[in-house]
Amino acid sequence: MSDGVTLGTTLAFGLGAVALIVYYGWRSRQRRRIEPMLVLALAMVPLFWLEAPGDWAFWAQYNPHFAHVPAWGPLGMTYGGLPLIAIPGYPFYYVPPMVIAVYVATRLRWPSRFTAAQRLLISGLVVGFIWDVPFEIIAIRLGIWRLADSPWGLTLWGGSRFQSDIAISLMIAIFCMFCTYLIGRTDDRGDMVLLGWAKRHTSSSRAAHLLHFAVVAVSFQIIYALSFVPIFVVHYLGLVTHQSSGPLFDDIPLQSTVGMGHGIVGFAILVGGAALQVWLIFALLNRLDAHLLGKSSPVQAESQVGASQA
Q1: Which residues fall within 8 angstroms of residue 161, CB to CB, at 6 or more apart?
Q2: Cα–Cα dist 6/12, whole Å
Q3: Angle at 218 between CA 212 and CA 223, to 5 degrees
Q4: Residues β-bridged to residue 209
Q5: What does the pLDDT read at residue 310?
Q6: Domains in the chain: boundaries
Q7: Percent of the chain, pLDDT > 90?
Q8: 308 falls in which pLDDT band (50, 70, 90)?
């Protein structure tokens, strides 16, 4: 593996994240209104610490040529070390599919039976999954990261060092579904749903924006962590059937595995867990939609969607 891949990835993630934040910061200044994608990008940065437990859960190993963050607490859970690219990686990776998902939800023609909230949730789920599958495959083929073990029924090229786990894409899709709703759902004033809620519960614009960012960032942490639960269960129980036939990078040995087997059980936990999470988020946000918008009924809640979208 050449250092060119790690250098190129580092530059792409780092410069890409900075460019996105600067661009949406500039747009916010020009419009005198904070862009939803700027809130999304900044709220994504603190998620990097959850990357390490997630790497552990997915038996993931990064290319050893990356520079690493200190192995403090949970940051040391990534086998071989958590790379620095994880910090800018979250805004760099998640902003583009969110732009696409909000566009699909707000600009394409949908059957009338779907509410504004449902269009955003469905769009985020589908776009998130379609976005992540090829990205995971390409990253693994290039050698940015690879997976030592993978579950039955959700693995492509199982048993090779290029094996890809579709369970990762299910988790990403669930998170994207939630994010798309938060940044795409707007009230009659064009404010994002939680910003409008924050304005109703604070006495100044500055306090409202601070409260809004805090709630978005914390909710991202909660939903992202919960999306890992099924794979954590599978990891702890050792319910995998595919293992790489050799080292993923250089001569570095594979991380240890609790056990191998019971693939159907692992599959059921991953798919069933993902389906349950989708249903819970869908049901919860549908139920809370009118309340978050300050409306008294679902009919009143059908205000314009995505008016302040990027």
Answers
A1: 146, 244, 245, 246, 247, 248
A2: 10
A3: 120
A4: none
A5: 43
A6: 3-292
A7: 72
A8: very low
